[in-house]
Amino acid sequence: METKNTHLSQTIKALCSDQSTDLRAALNFEISQEVQSVVPDWIELIPAGDLVTGRDGRSWKNTNPQKIIQSFVDNQADIPVDIEHATELKAPQGDPAPAIGWIKALEIRDGAVFGRVEWTESGRLIVASKQYRYLSPVFLFTKDEFEIVRITSVGLTNNHNLFLKSLNHSQHQPEETSMKWIAKLLGLPEDATQEQITKAINTMQTEHQTAMNRAENPSLDKFVPRADFQAMTERATNAEKALEDIKVKSLNEEIDSAVAKAITDGKIAPSTKDYHVAACRQEGGLKRFKEFVEQSPVIASDSNLDGKEPPTGENKAMNSEQKAIAEMFGNSPEDLEKYGN
């Protein structure tokens, strides 16, 4: 298994082979803590001086720290704080690279660049329990001048390069107070032992990793592949449409049957068939039509012709008007038939 130094060395070598104007490097150093707290809010990222030299002999220029501040402002994004440069090494490979803190602001103090950190809960515990003691900022620098221009991320590490104080260095707070503070954060009693605190931290880290694994590999019994979901949705839509078609067909058949019967029963005239069919297709129309037919009188009695033509010629009966005229002139029905009516 490659060491952390090997990973860092390979990353720097690969980045330095880039032909772009800005190259990337990482510095490892201890963080100065000037506040009375176990975990500092402000940390030193780039030491003061025109030339910044690491323990390994490499050097970079820091003649314009204000440019680093301005680059941060122009980028409009917080700087991630991670473990062992996960942002630079793991994230590009698609591996989890959770941040344990975020640099929210930068400022210059006597030529050095400081950053204000907003730690996550796990980040505070990691720092307070001294699992990692040093910082390693990753920054861009110009190819020709080796001038530092922007900080891209900050990694917690146990291998430092610059000559600065450790992350956990504190001259103001005794270890006993620190342990009580950590125990309180973990929900343990203040008199919890170091073993209990360590166990609680390890449990929290295990649970965090388990949650990350579940997010990356969800249980199949709780999720359906997109293709299967789309197929099921299409089948359901088709089934609903088929059912609706059956309902419409059945309704139309019932309407036709009801209207035809009403015509046969003499309740409506055949010429009004289309009107009543259209009315029945409206919401609640069939029910209203049936009630109407039930209460309506017969408007056209059965002719008893059964499709036959009405009788003509000799069997034609006189109407009342014809009969009155015949009686007035003393004519018989035969006379009218003979001479015309």
Secondary-structure map:
Elements lengths: L3 H13 L5 E5 L2 E2 L11 E5 L4 E3 L5 E3 L3 H11 L3 E5 L2 H4 L11 E9 L2 E8 L1 H8 L5 E9 L5 E10 L17 H11 L8 H23 L9 H39 L8 H8 L4 H11 L24 H9 L4 H7 L2
Parallel strand pairs: 6-10
Antiparallel strand pairs: 1-9, 2-9, 3-8, 4-5, 6-7, 7-8, 9-10
Helix pairs in contact: 7-8
Tally of extended strands?
Answer: 10
Written as H for each helix and E for each strand, in order along the chain, the element string is: HEEEEEHEHEEHEEHHHHHHH
Query: Strand fraction band?
Result: 15-25%
**Assembly form of the protein:** single chain
Explain this structure.
The protein has 4 domains: 4-173, no CATH class; 175-223; 225-298, no CATH class; 315-341, no CATH class. A hairpin with a 5-residue loop joins β4 and β5. α7 runs antiparallel to α8 (273-280). It has helices spanning 4-16, 65-75, 86-89, 121-128, 175-185, 194-216, 226-264, 273-280, 285-295, 320-328, 333-339, and strands spanning 22-26, 29-30, 42-46, 51-53, 59-61, 79-83, 101-109, 112-119, 134-142, 148-157. The chain has 341 residues and is α+β, with helices and mostly antiparallel strands. Residues 1-21, 31-37 and 168-175 have low confidence and may be disordered. It is 42% helix and 17% strand. The longest helix is centred in the last third of the chain and has 39 residues, at 226-264.
